[in-house]
């Protein structure tokens, strides 16, 4: 981990992180809609309730961001997957995304993941910088992954 698990940059106590609850999902969906051209619908988040890697960041009681990550068994190995991460536009650049990613990686490690992968748009420099800071390396391109002509970069890092 290249950054300590703290979101505090301005001397405050920073956001708190907890598992997602159904009552969070409207706020989550709103942030998702503001963050992505092809947002996940409400039901997609609903399916991940109870997943240990579905975490919420709270700032003053409000949902400031979230991450969705899980672990799958594949040929005897446990692969973590960060499926979605977003921070409300008003809260970006303050460490919330780093804190969410850090906690998600800790959950994946605790659930036995040997490595973790994610997909990121080739043009998403902000997210790519975040992932590189956390030790993710590009593995391969997936042409037209998003169905709008843009490639995804699959990034991967080892855990543990
Ligand atoms: C990507 C995202 C989750 C990062 O969350 P965040 O809370 O802003 O991230 P942090 O404040 O923890 O910043 C972490 C790193 O991200 C990068 N970053 C953050 N804001 C940035 C900016 N304005 N310009 C360039 N890089 C930036 C930097 O590498 C930063 O580290 P640094 O501050 O030490 O340089 C957030 O920008 C977001 O929700 N984007 C829209 C959704 C999205 O693209 N999700 C990723 C899909 S793969």
TrEMBL record:
Residues 15-160 form the N-acetyltransferase domain. PANTHER family: ACETYLTRANSFERASE (PTHR43420), N-ACETYLTRANSFERASE DOMAIN-CONTAINING PROTEIN (PTHR43420:SF12). The lineage of its organism: Archaea, Methanobacteriati, Methanobacteriota, Stenosarchaea group, Halobacteria. Transmembrane segments: none annotated. Keywords: Acyltransferase, Cytoplasm, Transferase. Pfam families: Acetyltransf_1. This is Ribosomal-protein-alanine acetyltransferase. InterPro entries: AcTrfase_RimI/Ard1 (IPR006464), Acyl_CoA_acyltransferase (IPR016181), GNAT_dom (IPR000182), YpeA/RimI_acetyltransf (IPR050680). Belongs to the acetyltransferase family. RimI subfamily. GO terms for molecular function: N-acetyltransferase activity.
């Amino acid at each position: 981990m290249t950054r300590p698990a703290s979101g505090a940059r301005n001397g405050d106590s920073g956001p708190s992180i907890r598992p997602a609850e159904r009552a969070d999902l409207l706020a989550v969906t709103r942030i998702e809609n503001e963050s992505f051209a092809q947002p996940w619908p409400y039901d997609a988040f609903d399916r991940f309730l109870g997943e240990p890697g579905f975490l919420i960041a709270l700032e003053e009681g409000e949902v400031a961001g979230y991450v969705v990550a899980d672990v799958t068994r594949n040929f005897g190995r446990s692969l973590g997957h960060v499926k979605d991460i977003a921070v409300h536009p008003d809260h970006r650049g303050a460490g919330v995304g780093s804190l969410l990613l850090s906690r998600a990686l800790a959950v994946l490690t605790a659930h036995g993941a040997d490595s973790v992968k994610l997909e990121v748009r080739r043009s998403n420099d902000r997210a790519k910088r975040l992932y590189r800071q956390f030790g993710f390396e590009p593995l391969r391109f997936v042409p037209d992954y998003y169905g709008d002509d843009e490639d995804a970069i699959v990034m991967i890092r080892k855990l543990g």
